[in-house]
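pasting input
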Amino acid sequence: MSGGLHGQVVDLLGHEISAGVHPPGSVLRIDGLEERFGISRSVAREVVRTLASIRLVVSRKRVGVVVRPRAEWNTFDPALIRWLLAVDRSAQVRTLAELRTAVEPVAAAAAARNAGHEQAARLVGLAERMVATARAGDLETFLEADVAFHGLVLAASGNEMFAQLEGVFGEVLRWRTGRGLMPEHPEPVALRLHCEIAECVRGGDPARAESAMRELVEEAFAGTLASLTAERRATGSAQ
Amino acid sequence: MSGGLHGQVVDLLGHEISAGVHPPGSVLRIDGLEERFGISRSVAREVVRTLASIRLVVSRKRVGVVVRPRAEWNTFDPALIRWLLAVDRSAQVRTLAELRTAVEPVAAAAAARNAGHEQAARLVGLAERMVATARAGDLETFLEADVAFHGLVLAASGNEMFAQLEGVFGEVLRWRTGRGLMPEHPEPVALRLHCEIAECVRGGDPARAESAMRELVEEAFAGTLASLTAERRATGSAQ
DNA sequence: GATCCCCAATAAGTATGACTTTTGAGGCTG
DNA sequence: CAGCCTCAAAAGTCATACTTATTGGGGATC
């Protein structure tokens, strides 16, 4: 998407609108875009169509391209999530982390009901690898296994909307370790919970899978919140 | 969106792809669309851009417009949700209802933490109206209040991604009563839970708000599942 | 002076055709 | 048979002309 002319302009405008450079209610004009970016009418129009599909703007005859109120933006669109992460990483991570606390426990329960043998086996394998890499202090590989673990739970839930969130939640996980928020050796409690979840999925115990996952993500959410407020205190304000 | 030429074609193609008329991997060509719909190149290209933004297709040079694997579709896009509802209402409602069981309890807890006085008051008012209309047997107004109630909880959660789901979950609720799944006088348990949630939000009791909402939506989900399997048994198969 | 209606200016929507760029496939060469 | 090379197919971009809907204003009417 970043290659073509279209993608570049969409990305730039998307960033700008997300950042509030063009606040809701403000009006862009197709000719304005042509001039500003040195693009042809067709490209400008296609850019607007793309942004309209994300519900960032709406195009009205005799008026122009109007930026919609933020509440109407489709915040589940991966592109928009990226733009919002660039604008205010803390706020977006908080939002996503909270969504995680909602979705993952229910997804774990569903996975315990629906997962096939192969998926369950892979899940157990990932949990084991997490234990091994944690012991070895290999945070890199640990993170990979962690991301794969949670992605697999979402995929195995059998709910395509849960599965959709795999990539986004992976972002959150990567952000946590990227920030150095993870202790050098991941907490034993978290490891135990991962193993328990994997076992419950394999054994078909939705209730325990759900509560274990809930304990896990709520702990992670609390940690995320704490580090966010700490960060805000340190830098003096938002961002 | 249905007015213009663009919207019509997007809608039709969206329906077709969702329905599997063009299975993942199959290839459309811009010229093909021009011919088939009698539209110009510009409109055809904009249609493809829109579908690409929903991640239904990807456009490759020298190849054409390729339908992506279903797992990559952005199933949180309202347009795609509509198309999928038209294809297999049961499956989509099931998916959405399960998403509801995940999100709404956490949203209720967040609302109990974040809701302002005015929002809390309105929530209590809606709960009261539900009790009144239920007693009167006014299912129409009851449904409206119900939809507004759950929408307000999502909005008051302070999480814009939760708030985003208001419209979609409203669809699920409307579907339930539209199907005659609601008893003539809504269950007293559900009414009590709505009131309890409203009180907990006003009083700032996240834990009880969450568990009450969880009880409510899990009950609703079970009812939805039961009626879906009953329907499937009745009609002999899916759809 | 207020109201209503019609019209013209405006900006998006559609159509057309030419030209560019990328890339896959098949043929050519070593 | 492998690797390279050329060619053509299809999307990407551009320029321009024309159509349609909408809004705001100006003039007619009450």
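fyi Residues 29-31, 45, 48, 59-65 of chain A lie near DNA strand C (CB under 10 Å from a C1').
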